[in-house]
Amino acid sequence: MFDVIKSTGMVQANMIKLFFTVLVVLVTTTVTGQTRDRRAEVSFDGNLKEVAVTPSEKIWIVTSNGSLYSTENIDSTWHYRAPILLKDPLNDFSDQFERLSFFDDDNAIATGYIQGKERDRNGLYRTSDAGKSWTLVEFEGDSWIYCAFVNASGRGWIGGSSGSIYYTEDFGKTWRKLDSPYDSTTRLHYIQMVDKNHGISGALGNEIHTTHDNWKTTRRIATPVDRNKYTAERAMLDDRIEKVLLWDKYVVVNQGGHVYYSDTSDIEWKAFPVHPIDFALDSSTNYLFVVTDSFQVISYSSPFQYQTLTNDRLRRDPDDIKVVNRALFVGYHNGDVAKVTASRLVEVMPFTKDSAIVEPTLVRQGTTLKWGISGNNVYLSSNTEPDWYREHVLNINVDDFRLESDSVAVLRDHQNNHYLYSLRGHTISNYVPASPLSVFMSCPVKLLSMNVGTRGCFHGSRSEFQYHPVSTESLGILKYATIEDNHEKNVPYKNTISISRLQKELTIANAGPGAIPPLSAFRITKQDKKSYLRMVSRWNDGDAVTSDQGLKRRDILFYRSVPSLLDTLRDEVVNYILSETTSVFSTTRNWIVIHLVNRNDDTLKISRYYYTIVPWLLPWEFEYKGQRFNCYNVEFSRLVRSMLPEDFFELEAFDNKYLILDVANYLYFQKRKRSGNK
Predict the structure, then answer these.
(1) In Å, how far are 398, 432, 441, 579 from 416, measured between CA atoms?
(2) CA neighbours closer than 13 Å in the CB half-sphere of residue 317
(3) Which residue, among 583, 4, 22, 40, has the nearest Cα to 332 in the 3D structure?
(4) What are the mean pLDDT values of the chain's consecutive 10-residue runs (678 residues total)?
(5) 25 near 346, Cβ under 8 Å?
(6) Dihedrals phi, psi of 14, to nearest 5 degrees
């Protein structure tokens, strides 16, 4: 649920605002310290998957190791609760808790991958005193429980990897096995019951079934994949039923990230007017709450009638949503929660008074104040003794910062975007470093060294280059060596680069830190387009395509059409592509690190670390005298390319065909969104 494949790094000016939320409601912090917020961030021990909300709107979170946290309501501070079970350091096997399901305020069950007293028995934990104590309940089988549905009458249904459905009528005290249309190959993944007899369920293996007699008999419904609404490229992933609900006379499904609805009497899957990424049913009103791909919350009374619940938007993609008392509750993977009603949207970071604020991750000493930042929390303390209190919560995570004065700090996020934060007014704004390389460029370069390498589980190699002035106009190669298994080998290589060209690219970087070039700056040629089309043709011919590139056989005709569209594209497309952060699971890391040393012995570091090919290896990170900024200058990449031998590995990174490919992927997914697919 929490694997995040891509997240955009684009920062729109209108999004740079303070994240007030519950801080405004509960406490006002001032520099003068008249009221100081000393609540600590809740430190969650273990992974989070779902948020639980009781009928009285108490909010609970259980982590994977059984640690418990709760709050009385969205506006209250949080408390650490006694864990469901204590860890056994001598036992290698550990239960995996995934969710709490509340029948009412007092009765609940905790499910996941939990053993009974014997290894071949399923287990779950049950409370009847609002989480004060928990009892292990065993039932037959050995499976991972993927889903649970409970109601106030004490009935509950659970199921998972074995495909079996288990049922309780006494608030989880006892369980019996029902008939099930699933087995361990299809795996029950989601279940919803309208009443004690009528319900619907979905499996990882591309199956949906309904029942009218509590699973004694079932009816299979054709899935969107069955009806060719989209192509599932990976079994049990692209075709899995993430969520399925009965909604009046309709059924709503999320299959592999694609959301559709259909009349139950005649299955014909259709897309909603707006694109949902998640949904939940308010059973008291029969309204369907939907979170759109732009993070708006919408309430549907029918597939054709809807209204925006609030003009405010969620900050990001939710990981779990629940409807309680006509309000939508949202859980995020880091423990943040939100409540959305027609009157307001409240998003909170869990804070507690059960412990003191710990020393922040980043600390900087001012003249009279000490600043600290952990993630998106800004803290202040006196210089004389540690007495941390919260100044504000930002809507960005901070990787580093420096103080301009006691009241002003320059913040930097993980993508080298810079912001100015002021205690006066508690404001944050975009900040662009002014001529950050001027001091370095005032003196000629006397040495350029470059380290280029790759490392993985079963390989590791790097090359070192050194260039020094051979005339007033050029730098020539002083050394080229390859290092593998700690053995260095000098390699004959002759090359020079123009000093004036190097100065020109540094001047461009100095004049516009972080500036993203237009598409025309890449000088895409007919040959580049032909090279791209040859790559697309190889997919069609069935050639293997490396997973590093994330390429799949998609709509080949669409991909072939992209070169003809390049002249019509807005520069915002390039802005999105180059500022996008791609998280790729890979054991191989590649890098190019350049050090420029001038005659004053000042050093400018320029680096690019990457796991998969990105167009022209943009952006480069420049670091000088404690300041970092991104450089998107493609001509600097061309200069780096000119310093490498023709037989060097991964020279394809310096190729416009990968830029065209990223443009094609962007346009393709935009097309899928417009057609109702994710």
Answers:
(1) 10, 10, 21, 11
(2) 14
(3) 4
(4) 32 37 39 75 94 98 96 97 74 80 98 85 94 93 91 97 97 96 96 98 97 98 94 76 97 95 96 92 95 93 93 93 97 96 93 96 95 96 90 93 94 90 94 93 96 88 95 95 86 94 97 91 96 85 39 68 92 85 70 97 96 90 92 96 86 91 87 56
(5) yes
(6) -75, -5
